[in-house]
Amino acid sequence: MSSDQSTMDQRWIETDNEHLIHPFSALHGQKQKELACFASSQGIWLTSSSGERYIDAAGGLWCVNVGHGRQELAHAAAEQMARLPFLHSFANFTHLPQLELTDKLLSILPPGFDRVFYGNSGSDANDTNVKLIWRYNNVLGRPDKKKIIARQSGYHGSTVIAGSLTGITAAHRSFDIPRPGFLHTVAADWHRRPAHIDTEEQFVRYLAGELEKLICAEGPETIAAFFAEPISGSGGIIPPPRGYFPAIDAVLKRYDILMVADEVITGFGRTGSWFASQRYNVRPDFITLSKGITSGYLPLSASVISKQVSEVLYSEQTEGGSFGHGFTASGHPVCTAVALANINILEREQLPANAAKVGSYLIAQLRERLADRPFVSDIRGDGLLMTVEFDKDPESRTPFRDASRAGHFAIQACHDEKLIVRGARGRALAAMAPPLTLTESEADQIVDRLERAMPRIEEAMHGGSFD
Description:
single chain, about 475 residues, alpha/beta, 2 domains, 4-stranded mixed beta sheet, 15 helices
């Protein structure tokens, strides 16, 4: 039993074991896993219930952009809760925090967007986007243009619709998803490219060709939209090859297909720009936002809609254009007040620029100190979103047969060094998305701890237990 678990009252351990369903966990073996209980946090640090300090190199779930323990956000929540703790946004109800946040978002987003719909999570924001896309084609009199294409290894959430968009089989297993009408094309994964491809230019042509073949096979008149993360996050931190999104955009425009950029992870400075769509020449009709919008302090999401799409949605006159969609907490005043305060911190402290600067330093240090280690096959990323990937044979990019288990072992070895990293289903990697407040000295500590974990990782991988 870990020291964290030993300091917990046995009653709470039993409550967890007997009554909690942990997200994305192996239910049958949950009781056998030691609990990691944390009591407080500050900056990049998490303090366990036993007083041990861990570096949160994962930034929570890719979300704590301004760092832990920001009292400014706590005060914004308390002040708004004392003033107006709740107001729904149905019909003609509104309030200043969501109006001020909307103004701020439209000022920092790429041009061409004019409507925002607020929800509670990235999953429900992508559900909203799909429903709006279906409605858009209904208003245009195209009832058959409803299929959605996403990518293998992409992650867009875990509800029925968002889970159907997701291209990771662990999110599908035993849930009867993807539902009909949701399709997946090849991931823009340079590290796992086909053996016959030698250059990024060839890879981009291949990817655009695979997408076009799928569209034509299904019938362009049936395809409504294409969803993609600018950098695939939970699928393995997969940046696109050079020229990828302009090539994809050309295919989509050819067949009148809408583009949705899922910036739930990459938004709000994570890659060194406010939004990765700007960085990778993505030209979306929708942008999905969550996580960094409040730095995870409160649940909030936003579906951002282009003027071209919103003009169609608002043109419907049947039954007054009734819009039967929304959530109790849509535009919640406390969540939107915290989001506004969060964005003010990002702006004032120039954290997107810091992510670019310190992210470049961190990835350079990882490459300098780890690239030549056995089993390290790739170190990639952008800004403060990066990963170290392990393969059985790095030269040929041959993965371990049981890559997920190898990855779990690497994560645990890092945890033993008081370093929290993340993994990806079907891959062996140590993924990082630390707070954008990270300093170079803190980046050094991340590399130090990962380097100390390497001998145990290598010993296990040399043993062949993951083959």
